[in-house]
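YM 10:42: DUF3231 family protein sequence, as discussed on the call
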Amino acid sequence: MENAHHIRLTATELGTLWATYINDTMARCVISYFLAKIEDTEAKPVIELALSITESHIEQLSKLFQSENFPIPHGFSDEDVRLSAKRLYSDSFFLYYIKNMATVGLATYGVAFTSASRSDARDFFHRCLLQTVELDQAVTAVLQSKGLYIRPPYITAPDSVHFVENTRFLSGGFFGFVEKRPLISIEIAHLFSNAQTNGLGCTLLLGFSQVVHNQKLRDYFARGTGISAKHTDVFAKILKDEHLPVPMTWDSDVTTSTEAPFSDKLMLFHVSLLVAAGTGNYGAAAAASPRKDVAAQYVRLAAEIASYAEDGATLMIEHGWLEEPPHAPKRSSLISASQS
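YM 10:58: structure's back
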């Protein structure tokens, strides 16, 4: 147990708590809109649970920041959502979105928990993990009950243990000189998951492109839609070449509405979160893919979304929307000030 002396939050804790607050204020706006539009009585409790979790995080973090005399981030508010706007996505898309949000949350909170030192920060992220597991269980059960849950491909279980006999195991058949080995299970898992998340992102961006009024942002979202579609096709082709199924897309889950439910700031920030999650997914997938051609695809595609992310950050800065995270003091300025 920590002693009575006050222990300051570390840079890691400040960063993860700050980012969690920003992300949850955005999520509250999005989920509130979902809740205002949901019609499926079986799916509605899942949306309500997601909103309840998000609001509890915001309340707890606000109290923690106040106790630390740390300025509460601006984040997002009711000004960034229009609950009266027409429906932009289907009920099934709402469920897929919540499922993906839970998946990202489990990964994010797991890292935050293990890197936290102070007991209250660890307790907070531990609760976040438990709540997100509950949410994932709930949304998965509803998706399965409705026949909407998309299972990854099946493969035949090996009949015995085998060991790799030569370096052809690492070959990706570059230039056609060496035959490609079949995909291993972990490569299939990442390819399927990344195809699925890109399909979801493509649909979200398609809706954003349809309702945003700023021309630069419209062009940016349209470009992102094209990138997500292309990446989905890349991963799908690798799976198809192995005669494995590919996940469905959700383009038909976007309505014809041109009425924006979210502010331009929120939509642009949301895209930055998608890109950040995608970058992390590609890094993990490349590290887990011994076949060189598969790993090379992830590296190539990651470079493309890194460039896209930079352009998005530039747009955020141009509009004055990029909230500055906690950072180390600029020592050179302090030294100069003390000498003047």
